[in-house]
Amino acid sequence: MNKIGWMAAAGLLALTAGAETGITIGPAPAIPVNRRVFGNNQLAYQNAGNTATGGNHNSYDKGYGVWDPVKDAPVPEMAGFARSAGMTVQRFPGGCGTHFFDWKKAVGTPAERPNQRFALPEFLRFCEATGAEPVITLADYAGTAAEAAELVEYLNAPDDGRHPWAARRAADGRKEPWNVVWFECGNETYHGNHRKGAESRTMPSQEYAARYREFRRAMRAIDPKVRLGAVWHRGEWNRVLLEQAGAEIDFFIPHIYVGGYSGNDGNPPPETLFRIMFGGVRMVSEMLKEFRQELEAAGMPGGKPLAVTEFNCHFGQEKPAPYRLSLGGALICAEILRQFLYNPDVLMANYWQFANEYWGMIRGYETPYRERPAYRMQKLFHRYLLDELLTPEVAAPLFDAPGGYGVPKAAGKATRAGEGEHSANLLPVQKWRFLDGGLSGKVEQHEHADGTLEVVFRDGSDINYYHAAKLMPAYPLYGYRVTAEVRTEGLENATGAALQIGDGRGFNATRSCAGTEGVKSAEWQTVSAVYTPLVDTDSLIIQARRMAGGSPGRMFIRNVRVTQTLPENLGASPLVEATVSRSSDGKKLAFVLINKSLDAAEPVTLAIPAAAKAKAETLTGPSVAATNEDDPECVAVRPLAVELRKEAVTLQLPPCSLTGVEVEL
Fold first, then answer.
1. DSSP codes, 516-572
2. Model-level pTM?
3. In a 3-state reduction of DSSP, which class is residue 128?
4. In the chain, which stretches have pLDDT less than 50?
5. CB-based burial of residue 555 (10 Å sphere; 0-12 exposed, 13-18 middle, 19+ buried)?
């Protein structure tokens, strides 16, 4: 985008000037602080081939740095980092490595598995050393319900001579039960097993629902205290899951990543990108609200607990800086945590992830370790969060952002996607354009005389289909709704036929699109999705989609229309976001404050008539994209001056900062 274009876009990022921020405590009753939101992910990939490691592999033996295989003990510094940040929950084995994880190969004494020195017993010992509750994710593309029940026996049954797997635990060095409560039935099962060729497959929702029921019943027959979570996803997956297993599900598991950016060219500039993210991160509350509404629509008015076992910002690039490891990334996660704390449906939340690998909060396998901004964010948040959560009333300048890169617009008055729609079809008359890349003769695609698209999947190959498209011009300040009629024949084990609308430069270039629900029905179904373009968009691409497959069949798409509408708009948000808590004895108040301004300090007045003493610390750095990769103190926590005035505490929040304030009454 040229300089004039960026200047025009920046003009959308307005702040309401002329006022400082005032924070008072609202009348809502206090609620206990849910410290399970300070969970994390501990990766433990399995050495499936039993490849010789010499006991020194970063993953298989060291657990990405948390385990000392020589001393057979947690690394003291890593355990200290976890305790200092208040990490209350640790998840194992984490991510897509779970799909085929065989827990029976992850137990036994270290001598029995010399090429896998960090496994299930070591993870549990690390949890014990850090005071964290374990969450164990079960394989979804391998294993049986009987084996899941045996896992519960290994973990929780008494070693009384009647439980052979409990005897195995005792032989591994643990006589007493571990008493693990939290389990997950797979990890993001809906997106396939990530195998290649003939082994590739995506589990259909019906199979998953049946698997969940079978696993839960078998596990609770061993220990009725265990709780099993079900993978949450949109559309057809959720409908089937709720219909077939909803009453038995203990909690649901959404994964929440904010944004989507992978460009290494520095466009848009980090200041523009992070302003967009700081405005749009409030989408998390909307997502949580939609989860509850979907449950209520399915006849569950009380909802169900949500365990967000993965969350983070979603930046996958390295230049001009790895944004996922930046100050701005840490502040996005701080705002996600704030929303989790104030949502009673959130049971727990797990940052992705704790140590090393690609996203780790802590870098290094030996001293000197590197504390990244996200770690310092969580440590500060934990330190300035007391016992009872209070609801703040924030009077602050307003923060506007135009949306894009995976987050909605957040400016002015809020609107719902699709409001103000114009009925005229803006899609130019054109034939479908066909690509062949990667289809290898396994897919036929053609257009009928009436314009209906037909795609034939010859076999059960797990093909990600996006190869039929239409193009049109676009104007970035509007939203666009795509609608069409879709039907299928076969495809029972596929994700269904859908449409995707996105930036004309392609998803790989922009990571920007929206998709309809998948259809698996012989009857014509109308589908729809609304897309908010990026600030520099000038064209759109509409593509026929089938995300994954597992059975042959056909899909048909007709009457594709694109209309102009208002995009989803979260509305302007306060420049300063606040979390307020109180000690159980009522003698202290604490505030965690996020200043979203990237270039200006913000004066704040805390209305506290009885303040006797106050202190503050702030996490900030030289820029929103600053990291600690080269300089360990580039983004750091430093003391911040506060002033006690009559009936108030005042301070100046640095630009782009997270500040903790403690007030004694």
1. PPPB--SS-EEEEEEE---TT--EEEEEEEB---SS-EEEEEEEEEEEEEPPPB---
2. 0.90
3. helix
4. 1-18
5. buried
